[in-house]
Design a protein that fits this description.
This protein has 153 residues and is an alpha+beta fold. It has seven helices and four strands; from the N terminus they run βαβααααααββ. A four-stranded mixed β-sheet has the order 2-1-3-4, with helices on one face. The longest helix has 10 residues, at 67-76. The chain starts with a strand and ends with a strand.
Length: 153
Amino acid sequence: MLVFCFALGEVGRVEAQTKPNIILINLDDADAELFELPYSDALFPSIMGLANEGISFSNFHVTTPLCGPSRACLYRAQYAHNTQIQVNAPRAVNANGFNGGFKFYREQGYFEDDLGTWMKDAGYRTMLVGKFLHADFEQYVPPGWDDFRSYLG
């Protein structure tokens, strides 16, 4: 699954000359083998173009192996033990009492202080396309996002 966070078209003519455009692409469940399939170029032409012309990292770390908590860490710039979002589905049997999901993120007040609001406060036009957070997902546009096209996945 793909999550795009765009900061497109800065606010104001003067700022446009001093601020770079920023595009953050977060791929969910994308390993190296996905891009080595014989038909990857046909399935993912834009992503393959970025991969072929971009940078490869051979030594990297993730905050958590689960997609929802990992995205929460990205949006908040915190580790999962700080966000307390450690599972995708907090009421699942294997959640072992850990927190997670859209509702918990909202209840913690994280929407008021995360990537969307930081970019907006810096004068960027913002857009998110793709999955946001799992569990208790609501059709809601969080503060900071000019365009928010999210779904559960």
